[in-house]
Design goal:
This protein is mainly α. The protein has seven helices and two strands. The relative contact order is 0.18.
Length: 155
């Protein structure tokens, strides 16, 4: 059985645009897998997941799990499953039910992350610049030292 990661129909145009601009040098992500991995990590960070209900029947087609594995994202699938469920049996590399559960969880977080990205990038002329701003805000939100003014730091 070949496991595939699906893209929601309502996100397919956004996903295509985020990767298709590569020909003009404006692409943020090189592949759909790169974009979906980033979106899944963002969805997990912000605890936003949304199951894929209606699948895109055009580009991007469902992406074989092997594509993600070849790019090293299998660790992200495992991390999401471990953190979300705490169930070590979901990390089995041979249990097809466990693999399907990891793929479904990844899809849900990627779909939630795509919702966040669509909202954050709405109206942006330069997706790359806006995306960098989103990442900086996320980083600063984690570091308590950046949340308050530190007078001795400047003295």
């Amino acid at each position: 059985m070949v496991h595939r990661v699906r893209v929601a129909k309502d996100k397919s145009e956004f996903v295509r645009r985020s990767v298709a601009a590569e020909a003009t040098g404006e692409a943020i992500f090189q592949t759909y897998a790169d974009l979906l991995a980033f979106a899944a990590a963002l969805g997990m960070k912000r605890q936003q997941k949304s199951p894929v209900r209606e699948v895109s029947n055009r580009e991007p087609a469902p992406i074989a799990l092997e594509v993600f594995v070849s790019r090293g994202y299998d660790r992200l699938f495992n991390l999401l499953a471990a953190v979300e469920t705490g169930n070590p049996t979901l990390l089995s590399p041979t249990d097809t039910n466990a693999i399907a559960a990891r793929v479904a969880l990844f899809e849900a977080y990627a779909n939630g992350g795509l919702e966040i990205l669509q909202e954050e990038l709405r109206g942006a002329i330069d997706y790359g610049e806006r995306l960098l701003l989103v990442m900086l805000i996320e980083r600063d939100a984690e570091d308590p030292r950046t949340n308050s003014f530190d007078l001795p730091k400047w003295g």
